[in-house]
Amino acid sequence: MVVEEIKRWITGRNLNPGEKLPKEAELQEMFGVSRGTMREALKALEVQGLIRLSTGPAGGATIERVTLDRTFQFLQNYLFFQDITIGDIYALRRMLEPEMAALAVPHLSDADLEALERSIEISNPSQDNTHPAAMQRVEDLHFHDILAEACPNPFLRFQCRLINRMLETMVVSSLHATQDEHQRLGEAAWRAHRKILAAVRKADADQVRKLMLAHIVENQRHLDLLQAGLRSRLVLDSELRLGAGLPTAADTSLLLRRQAKS
Questions:
Q1: How many alpha carbons fall within 13 Å on the CB side of residue 208?
Q2: What PROSITE patterns does this protein's entry cite (predicted)?
């Protein structure tokens, strides 16, 4: 009940991320509850990602914007107990990603184009590439994240990024897949990404939409062969990235090392 009352209090005052709640003692008095009850309520809000608790003279509860990673964790843990297949994921991906990519075209900056180029370079499946095969496959998804971040539709952007994170956890879990399997998947994605980037540079949104759909369909064919090795899993708090930014090569490398050890 206290958690719900605090949420109503935040909503009623139109508070924004970064703003602080009153001190714990003030909240106790406001809601007429004990210190222990208030601490449990604040901890529950922190677990939900709505506030951040800090200690010290300037500490207390600060309102937070719920991160993509925290939202993904809740969704992935829910879906863990559902019978979700690659076909289910890609049925949605075929509908969303082509439109997302087309909408992103006029909003991509020079920095975004450079990031897309770097992503293609990192995921290049040539023998000269020293990045692990699984890391290259995660970088394939990063290419899509860059496009999603430029999409002006926030709900479409959100959906596409959640799908990419779901696929990422599956790919990282498939470290046992053979080099040849990763190679075939990587070569197909690398060729498709180069074509998509070329169309992006020409500002041809219709062509980007067509190329992305063809890429998603082809990608599913390759992943169907890895179906036995791709599995959903629960997401650990230790795997959540700080903030809601795009994954970096360092993020991915750390995650892969953790998975390999486990």
A1: 22
A2: HTH_GNTR
Architecture per CATH, domain 68-261, reads as Up-down Bundle (1.20)
List, by residue range, all CATH 1.10.10.10 domains of the chain. 2-63
Q: Which CATH architecture has domain 2-63?
A: Orthogonal Bundle (1.10)
pTM: 0.72
CB distance 251 to 117 below 8 Å = no
Task: Calculate the CA 216 to chain-centre distance.
Answer: 18
- Sequence-distant (≥ 6) Cβ neighbours of residue 143 within 8 angstroms: 116, 119, 120, 123, 189, 193
Q: Give pLDDT, residue 246.
A: 42
Residue limits of CATH 1.20.120.530 in the chain: 68-261
235 HSE (CA, 13 A, CB side): 23
- Of 179 and 62, more confident: 62
**CB within 8 A of 20, min separation 6: which ones?**
60, 61, 62, 63
